[in-house]
Each structure stands twice: as C-alpha cells, then as structure tokens.
Write a structure and sequence with these properties.
The chain has 23 helices and 15 strands. By secondary structure, the protein is of the alpha/beta class.
Length: about 575
C-alpha cells in the first residue's frame, strides 16, 4: 500500500516538474508512513515539507499542488492537508484488505523479496576456538548470526554462512597438551595439571577416546616431558612459560605423532560444535580452516602485498604493520622474531581471502570484547587496497542467565560455564533462539530461565506460538462441527470486517514486508521479534472479543480468512527467527 501511494506521489511530482511548479532538478525522498490517529487517515507523507526549501514555496501551498496533481486512483477515497503540510490519505476498504489476498496467494513467500543483484554477502559468526564446548555467550552469537543471515536472505540478499575454524596457534597447542596429560594419567602417570591447561571434564573424555584408539602408542615419559621446563605459577614459576615449555617438549618428543594428538582434540570438539549448532538450527555453507591460510600461501601473499606497499617495517627482529597510518592507536606485529606469524597476520590473510572469493560485503559477528579489534582489521583491509566499508562488524554482548532473581553462576558438568547444550536442554531451542534476539545484539541481556519455560502471556515466544496454534485450533473445531472454510467467500466478504480490531489486524499484516526490509537494512532481527509479539497480541485481543464459529457464513468465512492470514505471517516471521510454529500446544 505504501509503495502504491509513493507511486502516486511520484507521478504528481513529475507533473509539477513538467508544469514548472517544482524545479526539474529536485530529487525528492518520498516517504509514506502509517498514521497514528485513524482520524487523520490511513497513511501520510511529509513530502511537501521536504520540498519547501528547494521549491522556495510554502509547504501547505506545495501540499495543495501535490494533491491537485495526484493521478486518479481507485485506492484513495480522499486526501487531507494537516498541520504545516502533511498530506493524509484515506484509503478505501477494498485496498486495505487486499493484503489478506496477497498473503494467502503468496503463502511462505509473503514478505520475502527477490534478489536485486548477484552480489554475494558473507556472514561469519560464532567461530569459537575449538578448545571446548559452546557456552551461552556463543549461543547468543549463533542465534543472532543465523537469524541475521536468514533475514538478509528474506530481504533479497545472496548470503553465505561461514564458520572460521581456529585450528592453528597457541590455544590449540594448549588443548593438545591438556589432552596429552589426561591421556598419560589414564595410562597410570601421576600428573600435576598445569594452571593454564584446559580443565573441563570434556578433556578427560577426549583422552579416553584417544586411549581407546591409540592404546599406549603415544605414551611418553613425564621426566622427558618436563625436562628443562620452567615451573608453573603455583610453584613460583610462570604459567605462560610453563605451558609453552610443555608444548615445545611434546612437539619435540612426539614428532609427527604430535598431530595425531592435536587432531584428536580438534576433531572431537569441532564435531561437538557442529552437532550442537546443527541441533540449534544453525547451519553453514563453509567451515573455513585457519591452517589452510598458511598451506595455501595466503598469509605469505598478504604480508608480501603489505610490504610492497610500504606498510611493513622491522623493529627488534619483529615485523610490524603500520596500522597507525589508518587510524589505529598503535602499530601491530604480524611476524615475530622467531619467524612465526601472529594471529593478526592470519586475520589479515583471512579477510583478503574473503574478498578474493568475490564477496561484495563481509559481515563479521564478534563478541563485544573484540571492539578494539575492528580498527586494526579495517586498517589492514584498506592497506591491501579494499574498501574498509565492505567489512561490517556487529558486536554481540554476553547473556547473563537468571533463575528468577538469582544469577546462575556455574554448570555442574563444565565447571566454569553453562554450555549452550545445557541451556537448550533446559528451556528448548525455540525459547533460546527467540530470547537471544529480543534485544539489539550490542545491548546487555538478562536471560530469565523461568520465564523462558513458562506457559503464559509474559513469555513472548509462547504467546506468539499460542496465537498460531489457536488459529489452527479454530480450523480443527470448524471441521469437527461439520463446517468448512470457504476461502473464496471469505475473500469476497472481507468488507464485512468492520470492527476496529479487525482493521487494526489488517493494518498490522500490511506492515510485515516493510518490517522485514527495515530489520535487514539495519541488521536488527529484534524488529521481527517485536513485530510478531505485537501481531500475536492483536490477534489474541481480537479472538477474545469476536466469535469465530458463527451462523453467518459470510462473516464467519471472512473472520477465518483473516485469521489464516495472521497464521501465515506468524509462521513466516517465526521461520526467519528459527522458531517453530506449532499447530497445537
């Protein structure tokens, strides 16, 4: 409806330009909005006020000219000029109710837009180090990332979802040594576990699987492993140097067998992450290996390109990137004196690789603690010759769990954090997916476990799903009473829906496509969640005030037709959020 009114306004504007009443070079931004007060019509525009300055005329005078120049239209009953120059449109009922026909005709496609170009957008999210199970913080990033990708797709964007697997570097080596020590413990060794090792019970599980697979083939002497290694922090040493020493000794002693140990940890945890996310309804087109950046030569290529452009320099044996040339607060090391490249060097190569693969825009979803990382990555992108605006970074705040008023501190299994799987087991996937996206991603959120499990109108996901199930129940009851829904008659009889609640519902349905577009344009899935909550509330109010199964066949079919349209939009929106639309509850 808004597009039709905008089209009429554009026609009027072109007529006024042709008549010389508006300068021909004026470019107008035509905006049409719903009115808040129905006495002011259905839709309104401030176009006349935006044209006042370039047209050098009074806004009300311009509004009068626009109204006079509007092309003839069957959808507009009348127009009124209000205030300083607003133009209010009163739309006839048949035009307003046409959205119901559109919904039933388009079904699952209602609210979705066709792709406007072949441009590809990559959304990279979660990308947690495969050093342990996903926790509730990762869960929020997963829900936001998956929903954002689906939302962008619904708005007509070609989207590819990617997980960056950090399968190289120090943290993975710490994992390998942690598994090795638990493995040796299973073989009878008495160990003092390093304070910087991975402590979770899952490390014992991996070690046990390794023992089942390898027997004692990887057994080494503790004396050899600890030879010349600096003491741990509790013993007056240095925990960082201690764990690094153990890594170096393990690699030296085991040689090529070290990678059997390394891959045992990597594959076990990555497999668990894949399964966890899959069960959460989160799927990827690509799982990208960090190690591949080195084997493919991308790291070397990225550093070479930066060096040739004069953005690298050597100091005290380290190779530095001049990120201060691009607004960073200090330069960054990309290669250490020992010849090893840094995490940042891999990140530079990774983003170069993304653009080489042809993505027009890359969207990175990071934890809020990575805020300071944005400037340096954009600096590297610009230094490589790419437009840094092609990188969009969305930050996700951590989620704090509460049970009533009590903050949830610990997990009995994990020891130091609540896993995503534990949360899903307690409240279900639907509540997790919905609650995680009810607020802007960069805003702090409290996750109320009791509320998420409650079956009440205070629980938004239950309230929305219940509206969908309630409409399904109406159709079942209709059949049980020997009646059938006549869709054709219902569509022909929509004008019988004269109650304010019915008109409000139709208006709300008409807002769904623009809500999808706005939410996608602003990377804000919570707009969909809020819309669905309002639509469900409107429907519950309507249902409670108006009987559905009445003797008047025309009115009955009109009401059921409207209800089915609401059901379809609820299902479409819930699908974007990754939430089910149950037929009964």
């Amino acid at each position: 409806m808004k597009e039709q009114i905008a089209h009429l306004l554009n026609g009027a504007l072109e007529t006024l330009k042709a008549d010389g009443k508006i300068p021909a070079d004026v470019e107008a931004n035509i905006q049409v909005e719903n009115t808040r007060d129905k006495s002011h019509g259905d839709l309104a525009t401030n176009l006349a006020m935006t044209l006042a300055k370039p047209a050098r005329n009074n806004p009300r005078a311009i509004a009068e000219m626009i109204c006079a120049a509007l092309p003839a239209s069957e959808i507009v009953n009348k127009t009124e000029i209000a205030g300083p120059g607003f133009i209010n449109f009163f739309v006839n009922d048949s035009a307003i109710y046409s959205v119901v026909n559109d919904i039933l005709a388009q079904g699952e496609q209602f609210g979705r837009s066709p792709a406007e170009s072949d441009a590809r957008v990559q959304v990279e999210f979660v990308s947690a180090n495969p050093t342990g199970p996903l926790h509730v913080g990762h869960g929020r990033g997963a829900a936001y990332g998956a929903t954002l990708a689906d939302l962008l797709e619904a708005a007509g964007t070609n989207v590819e979802r990617e997980y960056y697997v950090n399968d190289a570097g120090r943290q993975m080596n710490i994992l390998a040594v942690s598994v090795l020590l638990r493995y040796l413990e299973l073989l009878g060794a008495t160990i003092t576990f390093p304070s910087n090792g991975y402590q979770g019970e899952y490390i014992r599980d991996i070690a046990n699987d390794l023992k089942q697979d390898q027997g004692d083939a990887l057994q080494i002497s503790l004396d050899d492993l600890y030879f010349d290694v600096i003491a741990d922090e509790p013993a007056g040493g240095d925990k960082e140097l201690h764990i690094d020493g153990l890594i170096e000794r393990a690699q030296s002693i085991l040689g090529e067998q070290y990678w059997t140990l390394f891959d045992a940890g990597l594959n076990s945890i990555l497999g668990d992450i894949r399964e966890d996310l899959g069960e959460f309804g989160v799927d990827y087109q690509c799982w990208f290996s960090e190690r591949s950046l080195t084997s493919s030569g991308d790291v070397d290529e990225a550093l070479k390109r930066l060096d040739e452009k004069g953005f690298l320099y050597e100091q005290e044996g380290n190779i530095w990137f001049r990120s201060t040339d691009f607004g960073d607060d200090k330069d960054r090391v990309v290669k250490r004196a020992n010849g090893q490249t840094t995490y940042f060097a891999s990140d530079i190569a990774y983003h170069m690789n993304k653009f080489k693969r042809g993505f027009e825009t890359v969207v990175n979803i990071w934890g809020a603690d990575h805020h300071g990382y944005i400037t340096r990555v954009k600096a590297a992108i610009q230094a490589l010759g790419y437009d840094p605006e092609r990188l969009v970074v969305k930050l996700v705040q951590f989620a704090i769990l509460y049970r009533g008023t009590e903050r949830v501190q610990m997990s009995t299994r994990s020891g130091s954090f609540v896993t995503l799987r534990e949360l899903r087991d307690e409240v279900g996937n639907d509540a997790c997916r919905f609650f995680y996206v009810t607020r802007k991603a960069d805003q702090h959120m409290d996750f109320d476990l009791d509320l998420a499990k409650s079956e009440s109108k205070d629980n938004p996901v239950y309230y929305i799903q219940y509206a969908h199930a309630r409409i399904c129940s109406v159709l079942r009851k209709l059949e049980s009473e020997g009646m059938a829904w006549d869709q054709a008659q219902g569509l022909e009889s929509l004008a019988r829906l004269e109650a304010e609640a019915e008109r409000d519902l139709v208006t709300a349905l008409g807002k769904y496509p623009e809500t999808v577009k706005n939410a996608a344009a602003n990377f804000e899935p919570h707009q969909i969640a809020n819309y669905l909550r309002d639509l469900a509330s409107d429907y519950h109010t309507y249902y409670n005030g108006h009987k559905m199964l009445i003797d008047d066949a025309e009115l009955r079919n009109a009401r059921i037709t409207l209800s089915v349209a609401v059901r379809q939009v609820l299902a479409n929106g819930l699908k974007i959020l990754g939430v089910s639309a149950p037929e009964q509850m």
